[in-house]
Design goal:
This protein is an alpha/beta fold and 616 residues long. It has 19 helices and 21 strands. It binds flavin-adenine dinucleotide (FAD).
Amino acid sequence: MHGICSCARSKSKSHIRVNRMKRDKRDQANVSRRNFIKTTATGVGAAALAGLGVEAAQAEARPARWDKEADVIIIGAGATGLPAAIQAAEGGASVILIEANTDVGGHAILSGGNIALGGGTSRQKKYGVVDSPDLLFSDLTDWSVIEPNGFPDYRYNDKEVIRAFADESAKTYEWLVEHGVTFVEKAPDTLGGHACGNSAPRESHSAPLAFPLVQNGGPVPADKAATTSSGVGLIRPLEAAARKLGVQILLRHKMTGIVRENPNSGRVLGISASSQGKTLNIRARKGVIIGTGGHSSNVNFRRIFDPRLTEEYQVAGEPYSFQDGSGEIAAMSIGASLWGAFNQTGEFGQNVTKAGWIGCQYGYVNLSWQPDSPIFAQARATGLSVKDYQDAILVNIAGQRFYDETASQFPANNYNSIKSYVPRSYLNAANIKYDPSNFINAALAGTGDTTPGGGPIWAIFDADAVKREGWKVTAPYVDYAQGYFFSADSIAELAAKIANKFQKKPMPPTALEDTVTRYNSFVDAGKDADFGKSAPKYKIQTAPFYAAWATPVIHDTRSGLRINAKCQVVDMNGEIIPGLYCGGESAGGFSLHGLARCAVQGRIAGRAAAAETVKG
Ligand SMILES: Cc1cc2nc3c(=O)[nH]c(=O)nc-3n(C[C@H](O)[C@H](O)[C@H](O)COP(=O)(O)OP(=O)(O)OC[C@H]3O[C@@H](n4cnc5c(N)ncnc54)[C@H](O)[C@@H]3O)c2cc1C
């Protein structure tokens, strides 16, 4: 007995020593990190950090008083935050969900509602699809799969994070159904195949039912309510379920900082938030969950990963929902690490897209703003959809063409486009047809001078093209008022008119004239000698002439905070930050686009936070 005790004592002594050494090491790292923040924030780096909202991201000191409290505080009411709230409430926790916007939903409510949950869902079984968590895990960690441009989709995924996703994926599908989400009645398909694995169809679609869409202010026609796919059909039922469970949803409340016992150690105690000019401190008795949805709208943050992505680029989801990186920044200011950064810069399918709607500021291809939308005043124009890029040329800030206009964005390795796919076979790379499509890289390259981004891209066309496309070149289709659409009676006059906050220098009229003259000569010759556009068809020759905003659009955030299988946030020393969780686009280690990982990780985080036992 005595021997056991003394053994235990000596063990605990050595534990103390190891822990002390660990703590000393951690403190050294933390001190140097604090110094780094201090130095950069006060010295040369201050300007660079200003756009990151670094003031708001400082670790918050423990407040003198808490204005509100609950067991679990969730930041962001989107695809991650709502499932997290429901799961935490069902785990017996009291929950406050704060949302910066005037309504819930974030990017998710605007989304297409295509949800890639697999691993053996009841829908997969019903339609005879064979799948399992192991197969899903194997797919999403298959090093050998590449996109047609050579970028690997799954190679840089974190296996711990993917295993947790694979194990909870099918369960999350059933859970969504139990919580009121209606899926379109059809077999799972392969729409998102390149991101969801190549061994089984896994995509299901949430039906919008009678819920109004944010983008057009009304529901889809009744005959399509159960057969189309829309994010509103995911978000509104989850919002209702959360409210029914007593989750307090505080709209117009923006998290401005996370409170930790000490700046870089101890538990997370709560958050600070601002609401209509007031600051309030909200205590989390068990945990704080970050579901703020990534950083695609934060120019300085996104440029950490890709310096080319300067302020002129559009972001899918704006102007309803801005991904400002506040969750990541607040967590980093209390020591959290970023993770899986390659996935952010990988050139996958829709990561950065061509503008889908031109002549308006917000023209992501799958999001068309209509005049009855409650936020149409911010969107200002619906934009014009281009049926055939034979009808326009695209030019950069200097009025020069840069690529074949008919080319598309980054290629995607669609389901089974690797013939024949054999898991983890070295032959997969050899069996995919190489597609060198480089439209986006050419657009982002700009004029080759020292300007960091590519600058604006403009579609240039004439009155004949307007007729062929059937466009209406008036408000509310195009945005003359804010400088996203121009017309003139000559090409030189058109170039001289082009001006908005992103066109940092005038477009030289002679440059645009030369570009159009040269392009017209390619039409005569039947051959594009500069960029290989296939048989250019139409001259740009009939006044009036038009210039429409067509700058590329950033879609996703595919890297973020380091998390473990329980969605606990991990610090720069590889240690868990007690009481802090994260999921969805703010979390790293997973290159899957969209809703599925958000819903799964929201559930995991909500369950784990509610189960925390905290002393005192
Ligand atoms: C137009 C469009 C179509 C899409 N279509 C699909 C699709 O069909 N399938 C698919 O899988 N994915 C799709 N996506 C992607 C998908 O919507 C997102 O990946 C997903 O919504 C991200 O979930 P999230 O919880 O991380 O963030 P979000 O759903 O964006 O939610 C984040 C929420 O946090 C709030 N927030 C942010 N910062 C703060 C703060 N400091 N304080 C308080 N609140 C804050 C935001 O306002 C927002 O409401 C689409 C995206 C867009 C924009």
